């Protein structure tokens, strides 16, 4: 007696329905990865979503947000520009997102233009409050620049002081830097960075209590002073007072300033505090050549890179730093810093 094929298996095989993922499927995965701060994965899924659903403008808009988060502001604005060209006023939120990216790039005129365009065209938009705050900040920066032009009439003298202080600070010549910075504080009181550099030099030269006391006085007068938060965070970390340090670090994790010097300062202190991935993202977003060429940039970016599993990049950064600042080689390498 011959056996017939198993009907159960045949039925199952004939009822198999192939799974064909859609753009929406990949978009959902992209959003999940973004929320977990797995940005490379988010970019991969969102690009796949765009490939499968090229006529869905929400997908490139979300990809632009990921690019903004990792500091790829030009790439973000390219996507947003394409959405605006194709869909126009239907996606007016793009104007705010573009304004925000231009602000991060330091292109303040473009930032103001697109923020104003958003305010003109958006009716009770989701970003109305944020756009208003951005415009206020841009106006404030314009006023500060005007005030600085007025305050620093003897700009050549200020530059000489700045360059002298910068040289001593970069070479960790704290005793030499202190009198120069002290003189700057007297001659140019509006140049507030000098007082924070003075406090940092004091701390490094051994006057730790005095440096902490000064910064606490200044932060009491201005609780939002980024450099005070950065200095106090560094001082308390170096003094093994972690709880006090993190009271200043936590606010900094949510601050994304426009000035490159402040961006670098936050990236450095995040590395000191062990937030290596966040620090790498901050360092990667730096554009100004003067900031990128500093000793702290090479040292702390190298350490953060090493701690996030990028030893080749870490070594490359460390070697570049040692070429410009030979004393850095005495610290051994990024693997000596935990």
From TrEMBL:
Q: Which UniProt keywords apply?
A: Repeat, TPR repeat
Supply the Pfam families for this chain. TPR_16 (PF13432), TPR_8 (PF13181)
What InterPro entries does the database record attribute to this sequence?
Answer: TPR-like_helical_dom_sf, TPR_rpt, Ycf3
Q: Which domain of life is it from?
A: Bacteria
Keyword Repeat (UniProt): yes
- The TPR repeat boundaries are 23-56
Carries keyword Repeat?
yes
Protein name listed in UniProt: Tetratricopeptide repeat protein
